[in-house]
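re: ur question from yesterday

yeah so i grabbed the chain u mentioned. its 189 aa long if i counted rite. heres the sequnce exactly as i have it in my notes:
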Amino acid sequence: MISKADKRIDSVYHSASRQELAKSYDDWASDYDADMQSTGYIHPAIIVSLVARYVADSAAAILDAGVGTGTLGQLLSILGYTNLLGVDMSEGMLTKARIRNIYTDLQQGVLGEALDFKTAVMDCIVSTGTFTTGHAPASAFDELVRIVKPGGHLIFTVGTVVWQEAGFASKLATLENAGYVAQVETTPV
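ran it thru and got these structure tokens back, copy pasting raw so excuse formatting
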């Protein structure tokens, strides 16, 4: 028997366009947190742990790229981080994130396209569950590298299957070879 959560996950993974993907997330927004918890999804906790390890300043500008309902930001807020910003393609998800009242700025935007942020303004950019099948492409890292300050951190999850197949490994290797990023830590799968 396929659960409701599995059906919704399948729906977003099989969206035919960005518009369809955004609509799927809009429709899912009210049940998203409960559905993801029911699957044992722990990526936000892993990201928060890494932010706590590498970002000491609680006033650091942290962009939640693919903010969704704001679960990751809520966890960061509990740890005392106060300068949280977010971007997401789904207005339904942004509405849920706004209700949490922890973000200083929330914008609609698509990872892989130009984002409405100045160059080198973020101390840290976090993203969980966004770099996966049919979602943000590896090319989105070009824009994230532009936005993060020199010496800042990009902390993200990437689906294991798409790491090689969708070009994430080669994109990050290219950015590292060009001196734009340096890998600090990779967690086990």
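noticed a couple things. The chain is about 45% helix and 20% strand. also Residues 113 and 140 are 7 Å apart (CA to CA).
anyway ttyl
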